[in-house]
Design the sequence.
């Protein structure tokens, strides 16, 4: 079963172009602006969208994404609301893959079966659930795979060769390599080490490898894009939303700030393979 | 006997770290290899006579174990029912049961070659115990503590700093134990190569709930033997307060397969269980969900967002509970009851005036349940409270509530 993610990554590979996966928090800073941000991402240069599902206790996220989640929750965001955003997006875009990224509890409380059915219907293609390691695959991973959704796994510098097969076993779509031990928004220790790590992962799988955590600038994008099938960018985009606000409210600069950054990063990525 | 009793309630967790549907390993991949290492190391240590001998030696000469079993005579007469006994964990070095677990885990950290320790703390009791063992074993340590708790438990903050720990106040959320745990997990994920996370309660990802329970089980094991020596039988009821639930599971575990012993856990009822987000009674007022590495009862809204909760007691002010308690709650082996701030304050004062023992506000919740229970029991029956901590840390905040401070 191929998904929008599989198709998009195959196309990009044929074009020898690394993918730009752009993460935004669904409903940040408010529901309407969040929808506008989501809708413009493909045009700005995002190849894949990672849509953040806000959670009250984001244990693997740095301050920027914590604040983005708090803004979305304060604006009244819910899982039902996030699914609605995707539905709205799909009215105009049938091809850009959307990966839901978040923590398990809101999905568990919503009901796993109900979530999978509604996510498919809304047009979600895959998910990254930070606190569901391979050891908990029975919870959501296996039912999601059975339903034809991608379950994308994070691998980290601590995921050694002994463990990689366990982690990759039920991974589909792509492998998300977390470039460092830490929360979102930290700094990459060594760009060279990222290339080695991608090679190491590719020794275990044919899936595309997308690198995230710590990529902030077009130069980072160009450099990391050289070594990987794609890059994922989140913290700087959520930060751009945060700094565009006046008294906590969206301004005319909010959507543009994210759009400009995505375009800039996409430009950097185009330099990666020249 | 090596044959396992399949009807026993003491066999958990299973190999996936589950107590029924509760528990598990809901953590980021970065932490998974370490958690598996920790489990291996713990299994090896449990079978290593040298390790066990060191734990026992420290328990005796450093902590001061066994802790006494004390007959609270005036309180018994006052309540007019069952005999009331205290298992005096507050007499341990550092002033609570928390040291039992910290000693066991710091030796594991050493075995694993870790060079830095982090911990979360609510009331500061676990933070003090962690800072203490880190001083003794010469490891740098960082304690995460909610900013609200830093304020209401200042004496413990000072103790930790004097012991050489760095105390990092956490301002996120309500600035209580949940937020401290989030921040500790973020630190751990960032410094996973060097750092040992010394979790203080019987919660978190497997193997922590099992490990912390095992280290705290000394409470119930001693209590059982001491009570037998005093009265020649088992107590009729045991009671402990439950936040995350480490002193409670340590007290209860030895009695789970004794059907004649009633077991009560006192949750933080705060302003009252009917007050929205006004309590921290996760079993009475919450439902199962996934947070901080385990599935358990949680205070949460309809969308699965975790609530802050409230308790006068920083140590019980947590929206979750250890997974074994969640399972014991479902199986009805243990009765969990909410105790309000007001009831705990009354118990605090009664214990202080009648027994000359200032209990921690956490333990006062357990005592409040004893005060309800004892008068309903006959005079030849006995109820034992785990007096898990002493209240020196609370004198200022209780003084404020009582209007003793200007």
Sequence:
């Amino acid at each position: 079963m191929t998904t929008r993610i599989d198709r998009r990554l195959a196309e990009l590979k044929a074009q020898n172009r690394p993918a730009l996966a752009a993460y935004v928090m669904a409903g940040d800073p408010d529901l309407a602006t969040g929808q506008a941000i989501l809708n413009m991402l493909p045009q700005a240069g995002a190849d894949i969208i990672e849509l953040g599902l806000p959670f009250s206790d984001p244990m693997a996220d740095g301050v920027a994404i914590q604040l983005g989640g708090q803004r979305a929750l304060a604006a009244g965001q819910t899982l039902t609301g996030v699914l609605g955003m995707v539905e709205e997006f799909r009215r105009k875009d049938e091809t850009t893959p959307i990966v839901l990224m978040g923590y398990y509890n809101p999905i568990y409380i919503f009901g796993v079966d109900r979530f999978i059915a509604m996510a498919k219907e809304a047009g979600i293609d895959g998910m990254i659930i930070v606190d569901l390691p391979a050891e908990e695959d029975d919870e959501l991973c296996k039912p999601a795979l059975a339903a034809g959704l991608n379950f994308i796994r994070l691998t980290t510098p601590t995921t050694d060769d002994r463990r990689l097969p366990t982690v990759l076993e039920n991974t589909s779509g792509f492998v998300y390599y977390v470039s460092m031990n830490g929360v979102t928004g930290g700094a990459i220790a060594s760009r060279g080490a990222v290339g080695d790590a991608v090679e190491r992962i590719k020794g275990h799988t044919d899936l595309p490898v997308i690198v995230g955590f710590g990529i902030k600038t077009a130069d980072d994008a160009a450099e990391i894009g050289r070594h990987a099938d794609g890059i994922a960018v989140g913290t700087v985009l959520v930060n751009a939303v945060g700094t565009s606000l006046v008294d906590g409210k969206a301004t005319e600069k909010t959507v543009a700030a994210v759009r400009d950054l995505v375009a800039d990063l996409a430009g950097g990525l185009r330099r990666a393979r020249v | 006997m090596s044959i396992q009793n399949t009807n026993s309630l003491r066999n958990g967790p299973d190999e996936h770290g589950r107590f029924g549907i509760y528990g598990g390993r809901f953590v980021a991949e970065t932490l998974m290899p370490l958690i598996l290492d920790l489990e291996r190391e713990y299994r090896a240590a449990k079978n290593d006579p040298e390790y066990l001998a060191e734990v026992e030696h420290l328990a005796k000469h450093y902590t001061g174990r066994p802790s006494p079993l004390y007959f609270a005579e005036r309180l018994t007469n006052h309540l007019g029912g069952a005999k009331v006994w205290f298992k005096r964990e507050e007499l341990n070095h550092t002033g609570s049961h928390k040291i039992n677990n910290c000693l066991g885990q710091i030796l594991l950290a050493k075995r694993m070659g870790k060079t830095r320790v982090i911990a979360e703390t609510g009331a500061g009791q676990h933070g003090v115990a962690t800072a203490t063992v880190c001083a003794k074993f010469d490891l740098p340590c960082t304690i995460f503590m909610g900013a609200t708790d830093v304020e209401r438990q200042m004496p413990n903050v000072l103790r930790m700093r004097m012991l050489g720990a760095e105390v990092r106040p956490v301002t996120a959320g309500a600035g209580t134990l949940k937020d401290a745990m989030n921040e500790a997990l973020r630190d751990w994920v960032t410094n996973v190569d060097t750092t040992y996370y010394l979790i203080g309660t019987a919660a978190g990802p497997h193997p922590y709930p099992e490990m912390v329970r095992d280290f705290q089980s000394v409470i119930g094991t001693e209590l059982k033997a001491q009570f037998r020596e005093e009265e020649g039988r088992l107590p009729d009821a045991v009671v402990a307060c439950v936040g995350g639930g480490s002193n409670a599971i340590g007290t209860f575990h030895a009695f789970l397969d004794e059907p004649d012993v009633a077991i009560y856990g006192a949750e933080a009822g705060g302003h009252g269980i009917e007050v929205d987000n006004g309590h921290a009674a996760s079993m009475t007022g919450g439902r199962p969900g996934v947070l901080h590495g385990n599935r358990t009862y949680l205070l949460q809204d309809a969308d699965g967002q975790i609530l802050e909760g409230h308790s006068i007691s920083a140590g019980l002010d947590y929206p979750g509970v250890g997974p074994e308690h969640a399972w014991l709650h479902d199986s009805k082996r243990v009765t969990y009851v909410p105790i309000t701030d007001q009831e705990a304050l009354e118990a605090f004062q009664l214990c202080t005036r009648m027994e000359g023992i200032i209990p921690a506000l956490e333990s006062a919740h357990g005592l409040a349940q004893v005060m309800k229970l004892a008068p309903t029991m006959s005079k030849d029956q006995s109820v034992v409270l785990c007096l898990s901590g002493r209240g020196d840390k609370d004198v200022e905040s209780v003084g404020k509530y009582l209007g003793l401070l200007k």
